[in-house]
Specification:
The chain is 69% helix and 0% strand. It contains eight helices and no strands. The longest helix is centred in the middle third of the chain and has 28 residues. The N terminus is likely disordered.
Length: 195
Amino acid sequence: MTEAEETYYTEERWQNWLSRVEEEELDPENEDSARLLLNLQDDAAIAIAKIVSAFEEDDLDQSVALDELERVREIVLAEPEFDAQGGSEDKIMLVDGVQTSLICVFYAAEEYILGGTAESAPLTEYVEAAADAEADEDVDAALGYLVQAGTRIIAGDELDVTVVDEIEYGLVSEWVNGLDSLQSAMSDPEVVEED
């Protein structure tokens, strides 16, 4: 295992989280269940933030940073496997929600490493444009706007996530949820304890 793999994220770490999800009686309305899923998401976002920070500090060059991102993406976005009993379909659906939220975070980090930040604009405008694009069933454009917002978050801009209260629940609200995890990770990249 390379030093980078030890530093950023491991398959074992992700599997430990999935084991916790599998063991718990999950109810998204329950605070402890919601916290577990958020911790799962935040932990992956922290790994992404650390890769971006290492790139910014010239500890990783562009190609290595992109390779690391891809490696973490393959771990985190792989389809989870749970035992067939104990509501595994529901758990897969909940983990899928976390994975969906993180898709935007991976793309934003990749975009930032490849091209820097999007032009400066209030982040709420990016979210509103994404919501409008989703309403017009242009999912690619919606994702594009939020990826741009993500590059601004990496650069230090702050997103007021209450903006999602104004939009219909869907992919955009899921992706904004991921950007919220990225924002937390960029401001405080402390590892989430697994226990």
